[in-house]
Amino acid sequence: MMTSIISRELIKPASPTPFHLRDYNLSPLDQLAPEMNVPVVFFYPDIGNCTLEKTMVLKKSLSQSLTQYYPCAGRLHSPKSASVNCNDKGVLFVEAKNEAQMDTFHDSENIDTLYQLFPDDLVYSNCSSLVGVQLNHFACGGIGLAVSMSHLIGDGHTLGSFVSHWASVARYGSLDHKEVLPFNPHFIHTQLTNSMRPEYKVINQKCVNPVTKKFLFPNSKLSDLRNKVISSVKNPTRVEVLSSLLYKTAMAAATQKSGSLKPSYLYFPVDIRNKFIQKFSQTSMGNFVSVMIISTMNTSETSLDMLVSEIRKKRLLLERFQSVQQAAENRIEILLSKLGDAESAKTSYWCLSLCGFPSNHVDFGWGKPMDTTSALKEANMSGFLLTDAPYGAGIEALVILEKEIMAIFENDKEMLSFCQIN
Q: Which domain holds residue 340?
């Protein structure tokens, strides 16, 4: 699949960042973020708009948006720095032409295929730019807008709010339009306690010979799944029941392969913007993420209702934080309490839900995306990525497992009974 670069430039804020905002300190939660990027691709079908016009609109509106999301156009003072120099160096913007059809990427189960849609390997964290964009024009006329943000300055919600703001400026043509104002970012200004980020060990168990598969769970089937556990858990959410089902099925497949259940762990990042006593706005910039770690030691703990109950119990513990510092200390405590056991476990999984994120409805003026896909760097670890299915049809699960385990997983009768089989 041949990709040719049409142009590349740095998009700077439309007006200089004021001197008193030139240093943006990473919060205690930001400093816990992994050294990776948050990479997302928005796929838009061909609707006949002029390619040049789309490109100009995207660049102009991005420049305008960066006056509010000014840290995105800055640089870290040094690779391990705990603060951003908001020096208006700009966001990398690459325009590329791809000879393939959009479906080649949109329908692909191979995350590596998506990487070529990002500029300068910005799926990873080895680039000085904190944010990078690549506008990909496919042979069919569709486009793939790839946006990657350093996890140090924001989580998935931050990226979603940033892109939604950018899209609203593009759609309405001005920062001053009344429809754009609700997207104003909220910054958490913290004192810099360390000039350099401390080192934190994280759970990072590699998946040997990984295979990726997509599974669609329609709304009607998710309702059936919720009804299975509703007597044990009050008002279970779609994400709670589906993540439990996927984890349960993966453990069963691993057990069948090895002959016995090994200690297993599910590492589950959780957005905590609404978990503080003084709740933060959904447009708050930064990492407002804690974690749940679900441990499963024996077969009696693998029932669906027990797993959903455990996730609910862990989620309820993430409540009423008084400060960002307290939330960061709580996250470190959770990780330290399980880190040793999880690293020695034979089966560890991550689960990330992007359901309900604002990035699923990004409209730059030519309609909402037909699909939004993440190109996670954790593709070499066993886990599950949950996203809203196109057109609100349910939840799409991207499952990454070892090849032999996937062969068992994808034939599990209970799991398949809640899938839409193509």
A: 210-416
Judge if 279 and 160 occupy the same domain: no
Residues 137 and 34 in one domain: yes
Per-residue pLDDT of the chain (422 residues; tens, 9 = 90+): 577 889 999 999 999 999 999 999 999 999 998 888 889 999 998 877 667 778 999 999 999 999 999 999 999 998 889 999 999 999 999 999 988 888 888 766 666 778 888 887 777 666 788 999 999 999 888 899 999 999 999 999 899 999 999 999 999 888 887 777 566 788 888 887 677 787 766 555 667 788 889 999 999 999 999 999 998 899 999 999 999 999 999 999 999 999 999 889 999 999 999 999 988 888 899 999 999 999 998 999 999 999 999 999 999 999 889 999 999 999 988 888 766 665 555 578 999 998 887 666 789 988 888 888 887 765 568 999 999 888 788 999 999 999 999 999 999 999 999 998 75
Residue 197 lies in a domain: no
Long-range pairs, 329-336, Cβ under 8 A, ≥24: 329/28, 330/290, 331/29, 331/32, 331/289, 331/290, 331/291, 332/32, 332/200, 334/290, 334/291, 334/292, 334/293, 335/200, 335/201, 335/202, 335/203, 335/291, 335/293
Residues 60 and 113 in one domain: yes
Residue 272 lies in a domain: yes
Q: Classify residue 369: in a domain, yes or no.
A: yes
Q: Are 64 and 169 in contact (CB under 8 A)?
A: yes
Q: Are residues 386 and 266 in the same domain?
A: yes
Domain count, the chain: 2
Same structural domain for residues 270 and 317? yes
- From 127, 156, 187, the end of a domain falls on 187
The model's pTM: 0.90
